Amino acid sequence: MPPTRRRKMRKEIASLAALLLVMLAARASLADHHFVPSGSMRPAIEAGDRILVDKRAYGLRLPMSQLYLLRYARPLSGDVVVLDSPETGELLVKRVVATEGDEVCVRAGRLRLNGRAVPVEAGPDGLRERLGAKAHPIRLTARGGPPLGPVRVPAEHVLVMGDNRGQSHDGRTFGFVHIDAVLGRALGVFMSDGGFTWRPL
Question: Is the distance from CB of 178 to CB of 156 less than 8 angstroms?
Fold first, then answer.
């Protein structure tokens, strides 16, 4: 192979490698998509759905690490988040239901925050719970799952639960999650049943 062609090929390989590194860093630090394997977040997210995740929602991380370079927000009650399981390290998708300082109690899948019942309304599509700015659907199958509390959420931690309360392995079992374990906020479902869609979360 002539030297000029070898140089050109090395240059193209270096450019491709740089592009791949930039894409991996962006996926690790800016935005990503995730496949949801279980039905613990039904009906908002079905098993098999793919979700778009904003990894800049709470801060900017060092690429390929859990270290925040800059933190400018914290998860809020009602946010759907992607996090590392404190038990296995696998990725989970859950809803933040209580943040630091909140006193939380769960009975039959229903929440009490700081001594007040979180509003749940019945509608044509089932039950809707109002956490934060908007209401989201919940399911109270299997008597709503295990009880919790009342307990207070420690500093820099959140309590996460699935919307399908009776079919979710969540913070009622594995405890509070440190905010550094929260990798980003789920923006919406972009693929469901093998087709493209958009359901904001």
Answer: yes
Of 29, 40, 77, 168, the catalytic one is 40
In 10 A of CB 152, how many CB atoms?
15
Residue 14 placed within a domain:
no
Residues in the chain: 201
The SS3 of residue 69 is strand
What would the pLDDT profile of 9-28 be if each residue is shown by its tens digit? 565 554 444 333 433 434 44
15 is catalytic: no
pTM of the model: 0.83
How open is the CA angle 60-37-30, to the nearest 5 degrees?
A: 15
pLDDT in tens, 56-111: 999 988 876 677 788 899 999 999 999 989 998 889 999 999 999 999 999 999 99
Domain of 70 in residue numbering reads as 31-200
**Is 94 labeled as catalytic in the residue annotation?**
yes
In a domain, 145, yes or no: yes
Q: What is the pLDDT of residues 96-149, one digit of tens each?
A: 999 999 999 999 999 999 999 999 999 888 999 999 888 999 999 899 999 999
Q: What's the domain count of the chain?
A: 1
From the list 29, 55, 77, 94, the catalytic residue is 94
Strands (E), the chain: 31-35, 50-54, 59-61, 68-71, 80-84, 91-99, 103-107, 110-113, 116-117, 120-123, 126-131, 134-138, 148-152, 157-161, 177-178, 182-192, 195-200
| Distance, CA of 27 to CA of 112 (rounded, Å) | 36
